[in-house]
Structure formats: structure tokens, C-alpha cells
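Q: What does the assembly look like in three dimensions?
Context provided by user:
Components: two
Sequences:
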Amino acid sequence: MRERQPAVNVSFDGVEYEGLLGESVLECARRNGVAIPSLCFLEGLTVWGGCRICVVEVAEGHRLRPACATQVAADMEIKIETPRLRAYRKSVLELLFAEGNHVCAVCVSNGNCELQDMAVHCGMDHVRYDYQSPAREVDASHPKYVFDPNRCILCTRCVRVCDEIEGAHVWDIRHRGQQAELITEMNKPWGESLSCTWCGKCVAVCPTGSLAYQGSAIGEMEHDPVMIKRLAVARNRGEWLDPKGVS
Amino acid sequence: MAAPIDLHEVMEREREERFRTRWRVKACSSTACLSAGAGATIKAVEDLVEREDMALEVQVIPTGCMGLCSAGPLVRMMRRGGDESDYQKVTPEAAIEIVRSHVLDEQPVPEYELDVTMPFFTSQERVVLANGGVINPDRIESYVAHGGYQALEKALTTMKPKQVIEQIRLSRIRGRGGAGYPVASKWGLLASAPGKTKYVVANGDEGDPGAYMDRTIMEDDPHRVIEGIAIAAYATGASEAYIYVRAEYPRAIERLDRAIRVARRNRLLGRKILDTNFNLSVEVRIGAGAFVCGEETALLASIEGLRGTPRLRPPYPTEKGLWGAPTMINNVETLANIAPIIDRGGEWFASLGTEKSTGTKVFALAGDITNTGLIEVPMGTSLREIVADIGGGVPNGKEFKAAQTGGPSGGCIPAKFLDTSVDYDSLRELGSIMGSGGLIVMDEDVKMPDVAKYFMEFSMDESCGKCTPCRAGTVQMHSLLQRLTEGNGSKQDLRDLEHLCSVVRDTSLCGLGQAAPNPVISTLQYFRSEYEALIHEEEVVHA
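A: Here is the predicted structure of the complete assembly.
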């Protein structure tokens, strides 16, 4: 069992909660049942802090902080649902929708998609910005899985899970800025990868329909990101969490 | 183990060497002059000396930057114990004429003469660039003869690390890389960090368009950078150091590499430096062509051989840096200031500049200005003095419109603020930043939305792609600016642009993303009418 960390007072949008020193603002919120939208964060993997959906206002100073990477401190006053933050989250989501080719109506993950859920949660009903409509090729060379970069939001969950949990490091990112893209091995087709163990963890954690099982039809693909938390807990603490008890 | 260099003996020897010949020809061999043809000029003089058997009369010394790059190649004729004459735009033919005229007839050549009484030269205060145009960057003896490594010797033999940091604290020097963080605080953090292995890193990944202060320092005075690093390492307890230089600076890399080898051979680096118990190894690391690697956490990732992307802070590098060990990153220009501070004391340094921005700052003057080149002025010098006096004003009778400082992270300062004191805080108040020292002057013909679009394109291309607002936000801002500057924009586009400025500024992960909207924000602040004039059609209401 983990040792109990010292407790401190924190507040989310003016309501007081108990925070534990050493945990992040996001962990603290989740433990207390307070919703902070997030995308790239996944319990069990290292913190990435790239999607910027989970930025919150911490009363001291005006600079926004990513909840996933900010440690709880005593008497922290955290704001989540301010007009400014709502507007920013919406904009960041719109930027994600505009940069890839996210067409829910033809997507394997329609109805089971974290990006879609996030858009609904944040009230994003249209995209103000120019669709980039990039030309990206689907990699269906793997016998079990398909990678559709059109739906990728570069959250790097697959990169992290493959490196940190499976230990294979098949995935990585190449290029930078708007050219940044996921690759398998040294940009070889996934099906030719010698390091891929076919474990499927990358598919399990993908928040969108970018990674899916071969043969999935529209709306059929269901991911299982919680599996990673169970694996991480099993490895770090030597105990199996009840699959039903994990939220 | 060879004996360490005897600084005083080298100094003596160099003094004799200096007066060996009646004439010394100093020729600028910095990058700007070389691209203007200084290589051929130097060769012509060397050939002449050999052909006409002048070796006992004349020695040719290639030096670092003399400053006025727009007038290159620059040559200085120095008579033993006597006058100096400076020449500009010296072609090989002109060089032969000048050397002959001086050596044979004792006559200057007015045709090419450079007026060194003009404000460009007289209004400067050279601390960092003191050796520019004076020493031969490839010879450690030349650096030593002008006081080089005295500060290191003084620190190692007469001062405790704490006393070194105390002098830095007294100098109140702030980081020259852009953010202006107090240097002594950073040194103090590293000194008090636990652990045996600590690193000092010199950031030479200068990438702002038009800026070349750090390149010049590394190329023209590599030993000064090394001396600064050694003093920093001694003060903070570090035993390993890296100089991170962008790959586009091959001459800086070559000269630093050579300087490190020579310094090691002379026991100024390596084990038991100057016979003390201080050890330090220094290595050059070459960047791979990404602007973002100037950001300190991305720079560290790049040194480790990883993708050059920033990571979240805290932990700050002074807690967890290279390979998890405490690491301090200082800009090259900051480190070049260290030896003079130790030499002459922190209080002397603090007497230069303003209360909150002490010392001098090197600027690269570029754009619509008569004298383009590298200048060094005390902090707090007015923008007007820099542009009108030192820079010689805007050419072709045009009006000054704005000065851009801080590169893609900075902003534009309009004419009405010409009397602003150039220091960290005043520039920040005006919505710009000091940055690393790029200063681009723009005349009345420049359209500010175009300037904003140019810098946005730069930030878009250089975004590492890790965080959404910088990766995708800069693309959208660029496309909005594109539409506006083409005359196809709407009022809604302008509103979207302003909103995106806030989104990207407030939500981006690292300083580059957070600062990427600055050129748009500052031009909107001071030149809003230019944006509004671009909108012709009736307002389009987006569904």
C-alpha cells in the first residue's frame, strides 16, 4: 500500500476539497469527482502536457497551468469553469478538429471517441478556423491493426504506452510543427515492423479512431484506456485492481 | 602532465611580438567581412608582404568583428607606437595600395579612409566585444595578451566559489538570452543543488532572424566564452560543460573546438586547471537546425540525443537537467560578460547601464538603417540614439516607422517611443522584449501586417509540434494574416486573429509558443488602422 500523503486544502471553482501533497491538480480533481477536461493525459503513463486542454487558472499569478503537470499545494485556488478557460478549451479543440481530417460520420470510433466526447463536453458546435485537410495515407499493413493518421491528434499516448509499458518503442514522432506525424520504427509500414509485439496497447489507449482493429466498421471500435492503469498499478504496487472498480 | 600556461610570460612575449614590426595590418575576418571579400583582401596583403619582402616591416593579423559590417571588408593600419588608420570596403587592389602607401611613403589613402570619429564608433561602450578587431581569434596568446584568462586565474587562486557568485550578484547582470533572469540567482541555484555531477551549458543556438551577436562572440572571441564557462563551473561546482552551437555556424564550431583543444593543452581546461584542484571538461554540441532548441529544456533534450522538444517545467534544469543532474544554461553573451566582471569587480559592471538592467548589450542592427552591423551600448541608451546616431538614421530620406526587437518573440516599437530607454523592463512595458539583441529598423514603406505575417510564418515553421496551440494555432494565425494581407479578410477574421493571439499566448507549453503572437499583438496595438484598412468588404457573418 502507498503511504498516505499529507493532506492540504485546495479549492476547485470556490468549493473546498482535500488535496494530497505530491499529486497533480488533475489527479486531485478526479479523486474528488471534479471534472477537468483532458486529452493526452492517461493514468499509468508519464505526463506529456501537450494537448493543453486541461489548463486551469491557479489564483496566484495569471499564467495558466496544465492540471496534469501542476502539483497540488496548500490552499491552492484552482479555477476550471471560467469564461476565459471555456473559450480557450473550445478554441484548442477547434484547432485539433481543423488540423486533421476528423469526420465522425465515417469514423470507426464514432460514439466511442474521447475527442468527440470532449467537443460535446466543451460545447464545441462548429469550427471557426480553416480546415487544413492534410493528405495523409492510412497504414493498413499490420495484420491486426490499422493506423489512420487523419484522425491522429498527436497526444503520444501510443508512443508512451509502447515505450513505457510494453517496452517496444515502435511508435515515435517525426518532423515538427504542422508536419509532425506518428511513425512506426524508422518510418517503415507498421506491418513490416520487427519490434511490434502485436500487444495492442497502443490501440487500447488511442483517444480517437486513429488506431483501430482491422475490420472495424463505423462506430464499432471501442478503446480500453483503463487497461493501462491496471497494468501500471499491477507493476508499481503489485496488486490487481478490480476491472469493474476502476473508473 | 605538462605545466600550465604562464599567463604573464605569454603576455610579455606577445608584447615583444607586437612591436617586432613597424606596421601591423589588422584585417577583419569575421563572417560579414569574409562574405564581402575579406579573404581575398587578406591574401592580397600576405602575398604583397612576401613578394616585396616586407616581413620585417609588416605583420598581418586577421581579427574578429570591427562592428561596421555594412562597410566591410575593414582593415586597420597600425604604426608602432603611433597612429592608426581605418579603412572601409577594402578590395584586394585597395589593400595593396593602402599597405604600400603607408609602409613606403608614410601616407594614408584618404579614398578608402573610414571616419572613426562618427557616433557609430564613439557612442559605443565595448565590454563583450572589446576584443573585436583587436585579437586574432585563432591564437590563445593573442587573447592572453589582452588580459585573457586573468579572471579565471584570479577566481581559482584568490577567490572561493561563493565570492565569485557574490561578485556576479553585485554586478546585477541579467541573462542575455532574452528573458533577463538574474544570473546570480541561477548560479546560486546550481551551487546549492545537491549531487556530485553538475553541468554548465552555454546556449549558442541563436536563431532570431537578423541576429548574430552570439555568433560573432563565439567566432571572434572563443576563449572568452570558455573562460566564462570555466568561472561559472568553478563557482557552481560543475565539472562538465557543453557549448550548444547551431549547425548553421560552422566557423563558430571550428573556432570553439580549436580553442577548447588549445585551452586543454595549456591546462586551462581538463584536470587540475592551473595547478589547482578544479577540473572541467568542455565539449561542443552541434544543433540540428531547430529554432526551438534555443529553449532550454529542448536544448537539453537535444544534447541528450533526443528530439528537441521542450518539456514541462518545473522541475527546472537547475534541479533536473542533463541526464537528471542539476544543470545551468547561460546564454553565450552572458558568459562573455563574466571574465570582465571578475576582472574589474561586480560594482564596476553595475555602474554601467541602468539600475535594473546593468552592463552593456550587443545589438545586431539590421533593416532600413544606414550603418548595419554589430554594436554594443550601455543598457538604457535611448532607441533614438541607437537608430539615429549610431545607426546613422534611415537611408534615402525616408521616415523611421518602427523598430522590431526580440525577433519572432518580440514586438514593434513605433516612432513615438523613440526616446524609450532600451532595457529589459522598458521594452517589456511597450509590448516587446529585449530578446537576444536583434534590432530591425523599418521605414515608412513597411506594412506592419506583412511584418507580423513574416514572423508568424517563422514561428509556424519552427514550432516543434508538441502542444496544440503552437502547432495548430500558428498555422491558423498565419492563414488569417495571409487572407488579411491579400485584402480578402473580414472583420470576423480580425476578431478570430485577436482571439487566437490570446489562446496561443496563454495556453502554449513553452516560451516560444507563448511569445509567438507577440509580433501580431504589438502591431495591432500600435498600427491597428493598417489592419483595418485591409478589410474592404462588408462584414461576413460566419454561421
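Follow-up: Chain B has 24 helices and 13 strands.
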